[in-house]
Amino acid sequence: MTDYAADMSILLFRDKCMDDWNDERKISRRAAAGMFSRSYRKIQQQYPEKCSVVRTQLEKLHEMEQNHESNPEIPAGCFGTMLGELFVWKDDIWADTLRQVGFYLGKFMAMKLMLSWLQSSPQWLRWLESLPLAKYQSL
Length: 139
Description:
By secondary structure, this protein is an all-alpha fold. The chain is built from seven helices and no strands. The chain has helices at about 1-25, 25-35, 35-45, 50-65, 75-85, 95-120, 125-130. The protein is globular.
């Protein structure tokens, strides 16, 4: 199980570095991703379904960033789906439970991260002002 956890850490780290490279062209992140290219190829061969889920969810997150998604639950759900899949290290009687625990933990972590980003960023006011709050005023 520890080998699986290490492999999933490499998978997430490498894909996060590539996401940073694609978004911000940080050369240090591209170099870091390159250091794990051999390990990443082995992980892709051993866990193609995990790699596919992570890649798909990161692509969805990138699309949401580009479209300025205003509902934080939607990108948080992507993190939840990703973490939920990674929690399932083998298909046994615990798989559904682990997937669900991972989903809600991932969603919680993403919401917490977004909240801390909003509170520390000067852009948070602009983001709040862009939300369609009129539909919530009648509640």
